[in-house]
Write a structure and sequence with these properties.
The complex is a heterodimer. Chain A folds into 2 domains: 59 residues, no CATH class; 207 residues, Aldolase class I (TIM Barrel, Alpha-Beta Barrel), CATH 3.20.20. In chain A, strand 7, helix 13 and strand 8 form a beta-alpha-beta unit. Chain A has an 8-stranded parallel barrel, surrounded by 7 helices. Helices cover 46% and strands 14% of the residues of chain A. Chain A is an alpha/beta fold. Chain A contains 14 helices and 8 strands. In chain A, helix 2 runs antiparallel to helix 7 and helix 8 packs parallel to helix 9. The relative contact order of chain A is 0.11. Chain B is α/β, with parallel strands linked by helices. Chain B has one domain: Aldolase class I (TIM Barrel, Alpha-Beta Barrel), CATH 3.20.20.70. Chain B has 9 helices and 8 strands. An 8-stranded parallel β-barrel of chain B has the order 1-2-3-4-5-6-7-8, surrounded by 7 helices. The longest helix of chain B has 14 residues. The chains are: A alpha/beta, B alpha/beta. At the A-B interface, helix 6, helix 8, helix 9 and helix 11 of A face helix 2, helix 4 and helix 5 of B. Chain B: This is Orotidine 5'-phosphate decarboxylase domain-containing protein. Chain B: It comes from Candidatus Magasanikbacteria bacterium RIFOXYC2_FULL_42_28. Chain B: One of its GO terms (biological process) is 'de novo' pyrimidine nucleobase biosynthetic process.
């Protein structure tokens, strides 16, 4: 029986077509199985996030996956960690310059910090800061622990970077922080290196202007502006010199010149919070009230949040 | 406490606990070698780095904390873990540096003020209520890209002449630079690049230093 070459050829074409359709469909489907982080509030989805986080904790998954949960990780992880696509989407938790935030700095011990994290209200306007003494005591991996308790929070790593900017940005990105704090008094090369690495790794850079007399001079020298500048009255300064006040006058000076958010640290009372907001602060950083787990910190945070509305 | 009549080689470990351990184990036991726990390692693993170093090194351990605030709190934590010396930033508020120096004196450990980014170290030292044990003169790692910024050897004799404190020079990375730092009057030469992990060059630096010491 003679071969019908036309029939064979068209059959082969049809087969190729369906193979292509099935292949592209399966590939597309794999990429699409994801949970939008903003909608991940149902128990099942939260469990999935928690499961992934516990895997990260036990070292079964590349730790950068935490970063991916908040939408910051290099998409290359999809090639090496196919499980990752089942959990996350790339929508990031970010700061909105039209909103005002309360930044709760954790500086005491981890036992107190855990209680505080459990009691804090679920608000996108609460930022969690791992303070410098806290990081120096427990190491940067403490941020992974914080993420376990607050999977959707915006976490700031107060590394106070003064040298090795790229190295420190990578440290923070690897454990899933959303932002790193560098020092404004650091050499300009360091701030630029930190800023570049933050951009690469999808982190926000905060610049702490503690002990900087002329913030505008520092900002002018930078290759790229930070997301937030932090005006500061140091803890030691506050204790030894009552004349040293929070430099509120610099808020409008900075905002007048640059479109960046301004955070104020060193406020302790509701009155301080009120005056920080009145003077134009976008973020108010509090630590004393959250240093130890005392009383109802949840209610306290609610009260502070009401002040900065 | 360190002796100003001696010369020291300070080796900074910045990478990981595993490298810290293997690095320390490969060092010869000598009182003129100082093990520094670098700032990135402290930020990476916390106070655990000092505990690990102390388990393997009975000599001098310096914690490069680079305190910027809460001088006393951070100092206390690391001194109780076994550090013999701690650094604080010269760029920090004077209140912080003062609190740091006083706390170090109370705890009987050495206090070093790191002058990274400080244009005029004298201005800082003049303002202190109590003299620090030492000063670190610095060219930062990121600053090294700017060739105009050099290790400020010129300050060594001026500071030592006025304050008789220990001087550590950081920023040199070869045997020649270690010798230059000591020749220029530094009591301590700080190195790190060839020691994370330890390379042949690093081993040569140690041998050369011990031969001259």
């Amino acid at each position: 029986m003679p071969f019908d070459w036309g029939e064979i050829f068209s059959g082969a074409l049809r087969l190729l077509f369906w193979v292509f359709v099935i292949y592209s469909f399966s590939k597309k489907k794999k990429r699409k199985i994801s949970i939008n982080i903003d909608e991940a509030n149902s128990p099942a989805e939260t469990i999935t996030l928690q499961e992934q986080l516990s895997k990260i904790k036990s070292g079964k998954i590349y730790s950068g996956l935490v970063g991916m949960i908040v939408g910051q990780l290099n998409p290359k992880i999809l090639d090496t960690e196919p499980n990752a696509v089942a959990v996350v989407s790339a929508k990031s938790v970010g700061l909105d310059s039209k909103k005002r935030y309360l930044q709760v700095a954790l500086n005491g011990n981890w036992e107190d910090a855990q209680q505080i994290l459990r009691q804090l209200p679920n608000s996108e306007r609460i930022l969690i800061e791992a303070g410098t003494p806290f990081i120096k005591r427990y190491g940067i991996n403490i941020i992974t622990e914080i993420r376990m308790l607050r999977p959707l929070a915006y976490i700031v790593a107060d590394l106070k970077t003064v040298d090795m900017g790229e190295r420190e940005a990578n440290l923070a990105a690897d454990v899933g922080a959303n932002a790193v704090i560098g020092l404004g008094i650091a050499p300009v090369e360091t701030i630029n290196a930190l800023s570049e690495a933050c951009t690469k790794r999808g982190l926000d850079m905060f610049l702490d202007l503690m002990n900087v007399e002329q913030p505008l001079v520092v900002l002018k020298q930078l290759d790229k502006l930070p997301k937030v500048v932090l005006l500061h009255r140091g803890v030691d300064e506050t204790e030894t010199d009552s004349a040293k006040t929070i430099p509120y006058f610099q808020i409008n000076q900075i905002k007048g010149a640059y479109k960046i958010m301004v955070a104020v640290a060193g406020a302790d009372s509701e009155r301080d919070v009120k005056s920080a907001v009145f003077n134009g602060a976008d973020i108010v950083v509090l630590w004393k009230s959250f240093y130890k787990f005392e009383g109802n910190v949840g209610q306290l945070a609610e009260r502070f949040l009401a002040e900065i509305r | 406490m360190l002796d100003p009549r001696q010369r020291y080689l300070q080796i900074a470990f910045n990478q990981s606990l595993a490298e810290l351990k293997s690095g320390i184990l490969s060092l010869p036991k000598n009182k003129n070698i100082i093990v520094e726990i670098g700032t990135p390692l402290i930020k990476s693993v916390g106070v655990e780095a000092i505990h690990t170093a102390r388990n393997f090194w009975s000599g001098y351990i310096l914690a490069d904390l680079k305190c910027m605030d809460r001088g006393a709190t951070e100092t206390n934590l690391f001194a109780s873990a076994g550090a013999n010396g701690i650094t604080c930033l010269g760029l920090a508020p004077i209140a912080t540096v003062d609190a740091f120096v006083v706390e170090c004196a109370n705890l009987k450990i050495d206090s070093f003020v790191d002058m990274l980014g400080v244009k005029f170290p004298f201005e800082i030292l003049q303002k202190l209520k109590k003299k620090s044990t030492g000063v670190v003169l610095h060219r930062g790692v990121d600053e090294a890209v700017n060739r105009a910024k050099i290790v400020p050897y010129i300050e060594i004799n001026r500071i030592y002449g006025a304050y008789s404190c220990l001087i550590a020079s950081a920023g040199g990375e070869t045997g020649r630079e270690v010798a230059r730092a000591h020749f220029n009057g530094s009591h301590i030469a700080v190195v790190w690049r060839e020691f994370n992990p330890i390379t042949k060059v690093g081993q040569e630096i140690i041998k050369e230093f011990l031969r001259k010491a």
